[in-house]
Design brief:
Length: 110
């Protein structure tokens, strides 16, 4: 995508970028889940923001949009409605994106 080309202009580097994303994202998902469990709106905001940005960079737009929505809700007030169920939806979207990204990382660049 155009956004990817902006952040990773050399397609040969994309597999490494994908692996970095896949290796680091579980830590942010855990932080997001923990913050949601505590009702910690600033913690939700921080983790959702990070996930939004990194997933957008790799073209996982549905995942990024869901994180953006959770980030917006966390800014709106001290209580985030249905935070744990929203995190579960984000985790499911990440799982789907991770499968596609793993396949892409395993393919030779075009």
């Amino acid at each position: 995508t155009e956004l990817r080309a902006q952040f990773v202009p050399d397609a040969r580097a994309m597999p490494e970028v994908i692996v970095t994303f896949l290796d680091g994202t579980p830590r942010f998902l855990t932080a997001l889940r923990d913050a949601a469990g505590r009702g910690d709106a600033p913690g939700i905001q921080k983790a959702a923001h990070t996930l939004k940005s990194s997933s957008a960079m790799l073209g996982a737009t549905t995942l990024s949009a869901r994180c953006a929505e959770l980030e917006r809700l966390s800014r709106a007030g001290p209580v985030v409605p249905d935070a744990l169920s929203q995190v579960a939806a984000i985790e499911a979207l990440y799982s789907a994106a991770a499968l596609a990204l793993k396949a892409e990382a395993a393919s030779p660049p075009t």
